[in-house]
Each structure stands twice: as structure tokens, then as C-alpha cells.
Write a structure and sequence with these properties.
CATH architecture of the domain at 39-285 in chain A: 3-Layer(aba) Sandwich
Order of helices and strands of chain B: HHEHEHEEEHHEEHEEEE
Strand order of the largest sheet of chain A: 1-10-7-4-2-3
Number of helices of chain B: 7
Helix content of chain A: 40-55%
Oligomer: heterodimer
CATH class of chain B: Alpha Beta
Shape of chain A: globular
Distance between the termini of chain B: 65 Å
CATH architecture of chain B: 3-Layer(aba) Sandwich
Helix content of chain B: 25-40%
Shape of chain B: globular
Number of helices of chain A: 22
Mean pLDDT of chain B: 97
Largest sheet of chain B: 5 strands, parallel
CATH class of the domain at 39-285 in chain A: Alpha Beta
Low-confidence stretches of chain B: none
């Protein structure tokens, strides 16, 4: 398994593309700022959102039972899945029981987390992803590289080539309108023929037993209203107490994600239409364990807006695939170690701890604090790289001994001045991608001792 | 033990001490001097179009003058017979859908429509063009007032629609008309 740094090194090979990725996501971040600044109450909204989520997590058992009762009364079938495997089995059982073969799916990070498509594929069942970005990466047999902008790692030409292969569009026609129309035509056929629509859930309302799904493209609605069966998949943390709380979250979500005042469609599902079935699968998959960790539980407040991705200087310059997981970016770096600490320990170092992620988070998750706390946990557990550990130990040894520290500083300055080649070589990992500083003649300490009497 | 009980038990033993729910003070939210102007500005900025008419009759007249294609379904005053049961393949050819919105939101250009006004849940999404008629008195400043006025579970399905469907999934180039309508017009009835 390659780690984040190795994968990122691959990503930055193409400098022009890396710069484009960086600048484009920064532009999305700026749009977020502009949208946030139109509302004087923005910070108040973040605070409310954070408090509502904290409250909901603290009474999650109560709200889940309330939701279940109300959803059942609405004619919704409620399923519970302790883990990813059970989630996949439940969906497969529904498909099998009805002999369904034509399935469309709108964006759901949970089904990515559970690797549902792959699971169903192995059983010979094809799922068509209908979000444009997700359809593009599905054709290419790639995972999404961003939770809101799944194909952000691709350029027009890549999409054009992909569509030429799979949809027989004109070779070399890179016009986004032309390409989008081709996908629209292709997916309309899929929607109209579909028997089952799978969606994620943005918010579930305990008080009414309802589900809210937000899209710009209208793909969730095209799928769910065309198909006879709708299965909505949600992690239990999507639950909020009341419908009025939606106002707080919907005001924050799209503004934080893309800078839009709201998504084009905010669809509220309560009852299946006559002749239709509506299922909801409530998934734990490690979430209840996170709830038991005081330092990390508030990561469950996440509403998957990806503002932390767009602002992150490391994400912007390393791309989603470097995180080798369904949910990348800063939030992914604090969620994934819960699932597999060893496999995802590297993600905790895909950060400069600058704190920008925490500052843009609409539900005030202390992302950068958690990154730092996870580093402590995982190095205690022995999951942090050997080199990193040795270097930290070495640093601690030197920094704890003033005389040794002064001697090391003087040596380093001398080497940098007279024998810089000793540091400037590819065996020095720090030198990779960085220039060594010009060494000053004296240390600050020497300068201070010399000048304090003047 | 069922997964349901396993999950609920795990949550019960792991959840933190109860934290209180905040009071959402709607007075703290932004207000706009001219709700109609704000609504129109935002809707146009997100790719929709906004028109005004002095009365219901004037709105119908305005709409009558627009190019709407061959197949038009209008549910403003009554739902056409057979519409609720129509399947996707029977709705695929709809050029224009015209329906009534119950409420509009100035801050984001969204209009609340329920399945009662749609006649068929698929209609506002599958139509190539969407026209929604809404009263000026039904415009509220923000979503806070909107959720105060609507009852989300009054029908089985309701949706806030803000402009035409769109995507920017190809190199962040905005394209209007993803899977839903390629155009969306709001007609606001202003009676003074």
C-alpha cells in the first residue's frame, strides 16, 4: 500500500495540472467566502449547526427510535446495518427478492464507504451512477476524488476521451455543454428504464420520519420518482431532531460546498407514492464506536460539504486519490483512522496543521486539533512510520539538552555555509521539494548575548 | 440480538452526557428591504428567470405567449386526469411543466412545491422546461421563515426548487440543464 506522500509525489508530476487543481479548488473556497459574507449571521449559523448536531449525538438513541417510529408510520421500510457488509447484504436482498436488474444511484458517500458497487458487481448486478462526475469516474473505473466534485482531477479532454469511448461522442470535441448533453441523453434512458433508485441522505428528520436529499443536477429525483423502489442509505449521524433545524443546515450546506445560496433541489421524502416502496438503511459501521471517543466524536457532526477539502493546502496540491480512501481531505483524515488506524496513519501527516479546515467547517468540527490528537494516539500504538519516529526522538533528545542544541545549531550552520552538498542530496528527505535556507553567521542566542547590553 | 438493538445499545453506552438544543432566534437572520427584488436577483444569478404579473389572469396570459414546445402539462388549478399514475416513459416527452409554488425564499431563490401541486412527482424534474407561479405574499426572507410556514410532511414529497438543473462536473464549467429542466421561469403575481 502506497502512502499519501508517495501517491502525492505521483500527482504532482504534472505541474500544470497540479496548479490547475490547486487554483480551481481555491476558487471554490473563495466562492464559499463570498456566499458566507452575504449573511451577517454566518458565525451564529455555524454555532447553531454545531450545537444542534452535538445535541442530536447526545440523544441519538432517542432520536433514532423516534425516527423509526415515524418513518414506519409513513409507510417507509426501516433497516438497520451494523456494518458495511450488512448494509450491502440488505440492499442485495431487496434486489434479489424483486428480481431487479436496472439500478440507478445518486451520490452517496456511504455507499462508497461500504463499496456497494463493487459488492453488487461481484454478484453480477450493475449499478449506474447518475451524478455526472460520478458517471465519468465510473466509466474510467476510478473512485471519486472529491466528495462534492467527484471528477475534479480530470480535464475536459479526459472527459471527452472517456465519453468518446463509452458514449461514442465526437472525438476531440471538448465542449462541456456538448459533453453534458450527451450524458443527459444517456442517463435519461437509464432513469426511465430503472427499477430501483439508490440515494444517500443529507438529513433525516426524527420528528417527522422524513429524509432530505440535495442535488444540483436533479439526478436523485429523476431516479427516485421514476423507479418503483427507492432505497435511501444513511449513517445514523445524519439524523436531526426537527424539520425547523433544516433551515440552519440548508443555509450552510451549499454555501460552504460551492458558494451557491442553496442546491437546485432540496427534496423532502416522507411517504412512498402509491405503488412505490421506500426503504431506508440506517448504518453504524464504526460510528457508535467513534461516539464513545470524547476527543473524536464530534467528527460525526460532518455534513459532507467538502469545504475543508477546498481550503486545504495539502489536499489542493495532492489530489483526492493520494488519500487512498472514499472520503479524502482533512475530514477523511480524521474519520478513516477510526476504521483502520494502521492503514490510514499516513493521512494524519497530510496536513500542515494550519487550521483552515476547522475555520471553514460549517458545523465547527475541530479538524486540525483532531489530526494532532490522532498523531499522538497512533504513534503510541506504533502506527507511525519508523523514520518519522526516529527523527522525532532525535529532535526531542537534542531539544531537551541546551548545550547539545547549541552545538548542533553551530554545526548545521557551518555545514550549510561551507559544505552545503552534505544536505543538498536526495537522501535527505527534507530537501525533497524544498530549498535549504541560507545559513546565518550566528544564532539568535549569540546575537542576543552580544546585543542585549547595547 | 438484532442489529437494531446492537446499534442502539452501543449508542446508549457511548453517547456523551446530554447537551442542550440551541434556540434558533429567527430575528438574528438577515432581512431584505424588498423581498421580491432580492428573490428575483438571486434566481437570475443561479440561472433562472423571474417575471411579474399583476394578477393570476395576467400570469396565464404571459405564459400563453411563451414558446413551450408540443407537450405541455399544466397543474395550476387542477391535476389532469391520469397524471398521477403516469410512468416515466409516458412523461419523457414533456416539453414544459407549469405548476404552482406555495412559498418562495428571497435569500436563495428557492420555491417550495409539494406533490399535490405537481400531480406527479416526476413532472418538475423530467420536463425540459419548468414554469412555477407563486404569489408575492408567499415570499419569505430566509429558510427560517420558510420552515415556519410549510409543513414538510403535509404530503409524501415536497421540494425546494432553485432554478434549472445544473452541473459543473466537467472542469468546473457551469452547464445549465443537467438531468432536470434546462430552463426554469418563475412568475410572481404582484397584485398592487
Amino acid at each position: 500500500m502506497k502512502d499519501h506522500a508517495t501517491l502525492a509525489a505521483g500527482f504532482i508530476q504534472d505541474e500544470k495540472r497540479t496548479n490547475w487543481h490547486d487554483e480551481t479548488l481555491w476558487f471554490v473556497r473563495q466562492k464559499r467566502d463570498k456566499a458566507a459574507h452575504t449573511l451577517p449571521e454566518w458565525e451564529q449559523l455555524r454555532e447553531w449547526a454545531s450545537q444542534i448536531k452535538n445535541h442530536a449525538l447526545s440523544r441519538m438513541d432517542f432520536y433514532l427510535e423516534q425516527f423509526e417510529k415515524n418513518a414506519l408510520a409513513n409507510g417507509v421500510k426501516v433497516h438497520w446495518a451494523a456494518d458495511a457488509a450488512e448494509h450491502n447484504r440488505i440492499i442485495h436482498a431487496i434486489i434479489k427478492e424483486k428480481g431487479i436488474t436496472r439500478i440507478v444511484k445518486s451520490k452517496s458517500m456511504l455507499t462508497e464507504e461500504c463499496h456497494l458497487n463493487h459488492y453488487l458487481e461481484e454478484k453480477g448486478i450493475e449499478v449506474v451512477d447518475t451524478d455526472l462526475g460520478e458517471r465519468i469516474v465510473q466509466f474510467r473505473k476510478e473512485p471519486p476524488s472529491h466528495i462534492v466534485l467527484p471528477a475534479i482531477h480530470l480535464k475536459k479532454k479526459d472527459v471527452s476521451d472517456t465519453f468518446h469511448t463509452f458514449l461514442h461522442t465526437e472525438k476531440g470535441n471538448n465542449d462541456p455543454v456538448y459533453l453534458t448533453r450527451a450524458a443527459r441523453q444517456h442517463l435519461r434512458e437509464k432513469f426511465i428504464a430503472s427499477e430501483l433508485a439508490i440515494t444517500g441522505v443529507n438529513f433525516a428528520i426524527a420528528e417527522t420520519g422524513g429524509l432530505v436529499v440535495c442535488t444540483n443536477e436533479g439526478n436523485a429525483d429523476m431516479g427516485t420518482h421514476a423507479a418503483a423502489v427507492h432505497i435511501a442509505c444513511m449513517g445514523f449521524e445524519k439524523l436531526i431532531p426537527k424539520a425547523e433545524h433544516l433551515s440552519v443546515f440548508l443555509r450552510l450546506l451549499a454555501r460552504s460546498a460551492t458558494g451557491q445560496p442553496v442546491t437546485t433541489y432540496s427534496s423532502h421524502f416522507h411517504k412512498p407514492t402509491p405503488g412505490q416502496e421506500l426503504h431506508v438503511v440506517i448504518v453504524d459501521n464504526g460510528r457508535s464506536a467513534i461516539l464513545g471517543k470524547p476527543d473524536f466524536r464530534n467528527s460525526l457532526k460532518c455534513i459532507r460539504c467538502a469545504a475543508c477539502f477546498n481550503t486545504c493546502p495539502v489536499y489542493r496540491r495532492s489530489g483526492g486519490f493520494s488519500y487512498h480512501t472514499a472520503v479524502a481531505g482533512p475530514i477523511g483524515s480524521i474519520l478513516n483512522p477510526n476504521f483502520d488506524p494502521k492503514k490510514y496513519a499516513d493521512l494524519l501527516f497530510a496536513s500542515s496543521l494550519c487550521g483552515s479546515c476547522s475555520n471553514v467547517c460549517p458545523v465547527k468540527i475541530d479538524i486540525h486539533d483532531q489530526l494532532w490528537k490522532w498523531r499522538q494516539e497512533l504513534s503510541k500504538a506504533g502506527h507511525v512510520g519508523f523514520m518519522k519516529k526516529i527523527m522525532m526522538k532525535g529532535m526531542a533528545f537534542v531539544l531537551g539538552r541546551p548545550a547539545l542544541y547549541r552545538f548542533s545549531g553551530a554545526t548545521a550552520r557551518w555545514v550549510l555555509r561551507y559544505m552545503p552538498f552534505l544536505g543538498k542530496h536526495r537522501l535527505n528527505p527534507w530537501y525533497k521539494g524544498r530549498e535549504l535556507p541560507e545559513a546565518p553567521k550566528q544564532s539568535f542566542r549569540d546575537w542576543y548575548l552580544q546585543n542585549k547590553k547595547k | 440480538m438484532t442489529s437494531r438493538d446492537t446499534i442502539l445499545n452501543a449508542i446508549r453506552s457511548n453517547k456523551p452526557q446530554e447537551l442542550s438544543l440551541p434556540v434558533i432566534d429567527k430575528e438574528a437572520a438577515i432581512t431584505y428591504p424588498d423581498l421580491y427584488a432580492q428573490f428575483k436577483n438571486v434566481l437570475e444569478a443561479i440561472g433562472g428567470e423571474c417575471f411579474e404579473a399583476g394578477s393570476e389572469a395576467a400570469a396565464l396570459e404571459l405564459i400563453a405567449g411563451w414558446e413551450k414546445g408540443e407537450t405541455v402539462i399544466q397543474t395550476l388549478n387542477s391535476v389532469p386526469a391520469g397524471l398521477p399514475g403516469r410512468k416515466a416513459e409516458e412523461l419523457a416527452e414533456v416539453d414544459t411543466a407549469i405548476l404552482r409554488g406555495l412559498l418562495a425564499v428571497a435569500e436563495n431563490g428557492a420555491i417550495w412545491v409539494t406533490e399535490k401541486e405537481m400531480g406527479n412527482r416526476l413532472l418538475p424534474f423530467i420536463a425540459q422546461q419548468l414554469i412555477i407561479v407563486v404569489n408575492e405574499e408567499a415570499i419569505v426572507p430566509t429558510l427560517h421563515q420558510a420552515y415556519e410556514k410549510i409543513k414538510v410532511d403535509e404530503t409524501g414529497f415536497g421540494v425546494f426548487i432553485a432554478g434549472p438543473s445544473k452541473t459543473a462536473d466537467i472542469e468546473q464549467s457551469l452547464v445549465i440543464g443537467a438531468h432536470g429542466p434546462c430552463g426554469m421561469k418563475a412568475v410572481v403575481i404582484r397584485k398592487h
